[in-house]
Every structure is written in structure tokens, then in C-alpha cells.
Amino acid sequence: MDRAIQKKTWTTKRILTVAGIGAILLLIAGSIYYGRGASRLNVDTERLLIAEIKQGPFRELIPVNGIVLPQTTIYLDAQEGGRVEEKYVEDGAVMTKGQPILRLSNSDLELSLATQETSVFNVLTQMNISKNNATQNTTRQLNQMAEVDNALAEADRVFKLNKKLFDKKAIGEQEYRQSEIAYAYQVRRKKLTEDILKQDAEAVNLMGTQDKQSLTRMQHTLELMRKKVGDLIVRAPIDGQLTSLDAEIGQSINKGQRLGQLDVTTGFKVRADIDEHYISRIFTGLDGAFTFAGKDYKLRIKKVYTQVLNGRFQVDMEFEGLAPETIRRGQTLQIRLALGDETQATLLAKGGFYQATGGNWVYKLNEKGTKAYRTDIQLGRQNPDYYEVLEGLKSGDKVIVSSYESFGDMQELILKNQ
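Below the sequence we write its predicted C-alpha cells.
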């Protein structure tokens, strides 16, 4: 009689299969476990800088560098070209208005002046000659007029006498007619002489007016030439301090060349360089502040230069109130420039974390302060102390604001005290 053989439940094959599946599961679980462990890092809290998010007043400020300049600067440009013959003062001298600074020589200009002076002298001489000739001619005309008057008077006397004698039949008609013709001739002669004398007077007057106008023009030209020669001595146009004097004896200077500048030392302004990123937000009237010798001082933008050079543009700022007494031209100031009014905002203290995250995320602590998790955030405006938080954090949260350089790509930090 045959006996049924009972089939084994756990065969060697099944055991190996189950063992293999278990090994795979253990491997997966280990990978997950150790993978999670790879994104964790133990950190000593004493090496961290932790800040609490808070709500408070916020004003957007940007740091800019400014240089102290005189309130007014007058540039010295050569009015005429020439060779430097003499320097009366050196760079840095305090000048008074009209005080000579240096002397140039220009032989062509000096020769032109001499020529113009000779021309004016010749015109004056010619005018005197013409005036004498006109006077002599007028005298002759007047003498001739006197002769004509005398001849007319004589002709009139003879004509009137002959008319009486003719009426009395004492003389013949021919003699009477001759005296009448002679009288009429003398009348016409006087009229002609008067016209000539009048025309001569008008001509003399016209010539005199033209000569005076010509002389005036030449004298004006002469004065201009003298002024040009006088400009060879460069003088201070105002009271101030001479700076940046760029001229040496023997140097050739071109017309219009910059020689230096005069700084009015009665006041100062600050010229600041600003990144072109802010050009649309900068306008006159914006406030700024800086600290000097332990005291705070205020500035206000007076003028904006819109020309952009090397990614930056400039503004001039004036002092609100008194400037520091010991401030000097050329000093550099660190200015906090305000771009808007004060508002309430969620504030995150500045720190080294920004270099690693670009402000896109931070490590936020849990409530117990034992762990810190990577948290995405969005930042807005900033000033030298704080960032404005737009999203991702709320008042009371604590975050690590020190450098993240040693954390790598860790998602979680385990905070421990040594």
C-alpha cells in the first residue's frame, strides 16, 4: 500500500527567496536611514549666531561712499596760450580776488597789440589831417561867401541906383539892364555858394561821424587786445584756496587748458557715488546721515548727476545744519542714504548667511531650540542692520544668521551644547 509523502512548507528554495527579499528590504531601509543621516549635522550652538525675527520700524537705507568737497569750486582755465615765465604762488596758497598766480608770454599776441596800437595812432593822425583840411576848406568857402555877399551888395546898390536914374531918364536902358543882369547873377551866385557851403558842412559832419565810429571800433579792438595781453597774467577770480595747480616755468600752455582750481573754503558739500541700480529711486531732497568723531550728522541730496560711468552715478549732498568743525576737503565719509519713509516691517538681522543663500532660505530653529531646518524665505528691502522679510518667517521665529559655509547642503542641523 502506497503512503502519501507530506510536502515540506519551508523548502530550501523558499527560505533562500524569503531571505533574499528580507535582505533587499534591509538594504532599502538602511539606505533610507543612512541617507537621512547624511542630511543631518551636529553643530555646537556656541559657534552660532542666532537672531529672533521681530516686528519693528524699518527704513530702507543703502551705504554709499562720499568725498568732502568745497561748496563752490572755480576752475582756472588759460584765457590765452603762452609760455609760463613766472609763478607767483604755489599749490595750496590762500588767494584774494585779483591776486596774480602766474605770468605767460606770447610774442604773437604782444606783436598784434603793437600793430593795433600803431593802427590807432595812424587813424588819429589821419583824422587830424582831414580835420585840418576840412577846416581850411571851410575857411576858403566862408571867404568866398564873404566876397559873394560883398559883390551882391554892390550889385544891389548899383541896380537900385540905376533904376532910379532910369526912371528919371538920366541913363539909358542898356546901362540899366546891365546892372539888373549883374544883380541877378550875384543873387544866383550867392545861392550857389550857400548850397556849396551847406554840402561841404554836411560832408564834414559825415566824415567826422564816420571817423569817430572807425576810431571807436579800433579803440575797442585795441582794448580787447590789451585785455588779451593782460590775460597772460593769470589772476584769482575769487577769494579761496588754490588747488591742483598744474603749471611749471617753461611749460607751454594752450588756450583753454585747465591750470588749476580755486576752492571757496567757507563751506563744504559731499559728492557720493551710487550704484546705477538705484538711479530711478534717487532724487533731490532724500536724506542721508553719517557718523564723524562719535557724532551723527545729516545730509540732503541737492543735485543728481544722471550720467552713468562704470556702473555708477553721482549726487551732491549738502549739510543739514552745521558741518563737523574738523572736516577737511578730500575726506571720505560712509553715508547711510535713506530711500524712503519709515514703515513697520518684519525684520531679519543681517549676517553671514546671506553669502551662502542669497537670501532665499535660512536655518530656522524648532520651538525647543534643539534643531534647525532649512526654510525657504523671501526678502525685500534692506538697510545696514536688517532685511525686510516678505514671506517664510514671522515675528518670534529664531534663525541662524551666522555663516553657513561649513554646513554644506544639510537639510537639518542638530544643535548641541558642549
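The chain has four helices and 22 strands.
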